[in-house]
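Worked example 2:
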Amino acid sequence: MIIRPWPALLLLATLAGCLGAPVAPMTEAPLPPAPPPVSASQPDQIILEEALRGRALGNGEVVELSDRLLQEGNSALSDQTTMARLEILLLKALKTQDKVYRPAILRNLGIIHYHQGKYKKARQELQHSNELNPREPRTHFYLARIFSHQGEIYQKQGKKSLSRQQFKRASIEMEVARKLAPNNSTYRQDLQQIIRQEQGK
């Protein structure tokens, strides 16, 4: 077996060169800056847009944001672009299978679909939310609105018995909402008046 000295000499020369020269300390690549935390002073529309562009929001933050945007009287309720963006954000949050916020996410999806006129979808989401958390007055309030709408449809079709059933269900749901949130003035209003106001928009 022939031993060739040159690879060993090359290695020694390389090590000698490295040992003799000053070695620069290794530095890690800088991390990209973290997005700023959600601030209460930031307009909700900006937070929504940033969340859709990749800003990380926890499910609790998504629920809080959607709760604010979906408040009664908020102009966002009649803005289809905002509703569509919020729907995307809530559907993304729903995929996480978070049991804590799932009822609120489903409720808010139901509210969006209600305001989009997708009553069947809204009813399914609100009923599912209610199964998970039957003590949420807003869910009952929107279920009452959906049953009332259905009652009006049956009434126009001349289906009086079905119409009465839906209005009765609406009345029951509204009463539950009032019991769960007795200080909420919206729930003390006449349901038919609320529906008429919506239709006048």
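Residues 75 and 125 are 23 Å apart (CA to CA). Residues 9-16, 23-29, 31-41 have pLDDT under 50 and may be disordered.
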